[in-house]
Amino acid sequence: MSTIIPAKGVFINNRWQPSSSGKTIAMIAPATGKVFGEIARGTAADIDAAVAAARHAFEKGAWGKLTATERGRLLTNFGRVIEKHAEELALLEATDTGKPMKQARADVTAVSRYFEYYGGAADKVHGDTIPFLNGYLVNTLYEPVGVTAHIIPWNYPGQMFGRSVAAALAMGNATVVKPAEEACQVPMRLAELCAEAGFPEGAVNVVPGLGEEAGAALSSHRGVDFISFTGSPEVGTLIQIAAAKNHIGCTLELGGKSPQIVFGDADLAAAVQSVAGAIVQNAGQTCSAGSRVLVERRIWDRFLTDLSQRFSQIRAGTPAMDLDLGPVISAGQKGRIGAMLARAETAGARILARGQIAAGAPGTGYYVTPTIYHEVDPASELAREEVFGPILAAMPFDSEEEAIRLANGTDFGLVAGVWSGDCSRAIRVARKVRAGQLFVNGYGAGGGIELPFGGMKKSGHGREKGFEALYEFGAMKTLIIKHD
Ligand code: NAI
Ligand code: MG
To answer: Over the chain (484 residues), what is each successive 10-residue block's mean pLDDT?
Structure first.
């Protein structure tokens, strides 16, 4: 895309307004390394204005007066609006993140589904009647928490907006979104489309800007009632501290080092396809990327030969080339990955197989060659830390116990996959692995929008997606009524 997209400002009360900073941040297309636009550099003052707009919408404005059914209709209808703008949104997402068009299109479909799903759910969240003492009627009520903050990352900007904002809106909250400075075109466009689709003023506000500036101002703001964060464990810690200082809740989704465990009796052809796909998807920049493969030693050679063969066909290219993967998000991320791999090689890891960067991919883009490493020491950084690139660490195991020990051998616990033809064993192993989502004989990085998703251990806490997310964005009240 050669057109320069100008900075629009900050989106508050259904209007673009100039940021108080007057400053902008250049937006770089990862596929080419070239500037394609600018965004406003939102400030603490802009965050103040956005939080005030959301507070007003929630307490006094038209948004807070809608019934659950009316909110649901707005959300469901917005799902259709997204479908109508699907190609435009997919192109924007692909330019901003570098991902292949087919991935960008799938992302937009998911955003639309989030609004459709949570639209349908909006008027189906209800409390209980609890048996208590004679002469009492006790009801529980679910109410919105109020103003919710959404600090989202750059890997799936549209999907992250859909997954957290749609659930918060369905519960009746008013939202302030701080998208990532590396990629935020789609969240900004979605906010604009929300206004066109009839969401009342202040329900959806978006302040682009830097993490340590706009992000920190939002997470520490006293007018915020709940924070939904997806990103790095380091920033997750800061978010939790900020939430603690204001005595509010937060969900933290902090990535993983998700294993796929392949037993000798598995459908190996299916496992090969899935293991390759789960690390290559989005260039490995997926919180639930299958970044480790643990293989039973008796099939190690055969499995790794087939997997290497599959990997050798994988190619990275521009969004328009629409190959298996695109570049990583930035020069910084590419450098970070390169440094990690250099340390891994020093620690003894060896390259087993590589994909390719297609000839037509610009040399100025941030492409990383998909690579499988073997002889990876389970105690090393490559085996334990998130690379966030198309890099797979392969390790053998001899017994079920060892497989479980290796699977649980990192600080993370987001997703895991178990491959076995023995159903009892697959279930037994899955139940011993500490992760928020467990796949048996399959692996869907991210899973479906209907499926509760979130971490254990360093992967974070709280659940997004599915019905479960609605309860995170709701506050329960217990109403105790005495009668004669
Ligand atoms: P990050 O955690 O810095 O960024 C995520 C979001 O947090 C962005 O919107 C950013 O602006 C915001 N942020 C940054 N500092 C903040 C602060 N002090 N207060 C409030 N908000 C702040 O992640 P980054 O630096 O982009 O990536 C570093 C690593 O984090 C990646 O290599 C990857 O391992 C992991 N990551 C995991 C993601 C996931 O999906 N779980 C998504 C993005 C990154
Ligand atoms: Mg960061």
So the answer is: 84 98 98 98 98 98 98 98 98 98 98 98 97 98 98 98 98 98 98 98 98 98 98 98 98 97 98 98 97 98 98 98 98 98 97 97 98 97 98 98 98 98 97 97 86 97 97 97 96
Neighbours of 200 (CB within 10 A): 19
Evaluate whether residue 455 is within a structural domain.
Answer: no
* Residues 250 and 285 grouped into a single domain: no
CA distances from 118 to 115, 164, 251, 383, 475 (A): 5, 10, 18, 37, 17
Per the structure, the complete domain to which residue 397 belongs is given by: 259-448
Query: Are residue 396 and residue 468 in the same domain, yes or no?
Result: no
**CA 457 to CA 160: how far, in whole Å?**
21
Number of domains in the chain: 2
Stated pTM of the model: 0.97
Could you tell me the CA-to-CA distances from 457 to 212, 360, 414 in Å, in that order?
Answer: 25, 42, 8
Backbone angles phi, psi at 74, to 5 degrees: -60, -45
Are 249 and 279 contained in the same domain? no
Same-domain check for residues 470 and 437: no
What secondary structure letter does DSSP report for 170? H
- Whether residue 269 sits in one domain with residue 153: no
Q: What is the CATH number of the domain that holds 125?
A: 3.40.605.10
Burial class of residue 408 (count of CB atoms within 10 Å of its CB; 0-12, 13-18, 19+): middle
CATH code of the domain covering residue 368: 3.40.309.10
- Residue 288, Cα to own-chain centre: how many angstroms? 9
What are the residues whose beta carbons fall under 8 Å from the beta carbon of 206, sequence distance 6 or more?
Answer: 10, 11, 50, 176, 177, 178, 179, 184, 187, 188, 191
Give CA–CA dist 372/387, Å, rounded.
12
- Which residues sit opposite 294 in a β-bridge? 261, 395
Please choose from 235, 237, 287, 457 the residue to mutate so as to test ligand 1's pocket, defined by most ligand atoms within 8 A of CB.
235
Ligand 1 interacting residues, C-beta cut-off 6 A: 151-153, 155, 178, 180-181, 211-212, 215-216, 219, 230-232, 235, 238, 253-255, 287, 333, 386, 388
Same-domain status, 115 and 248: yes
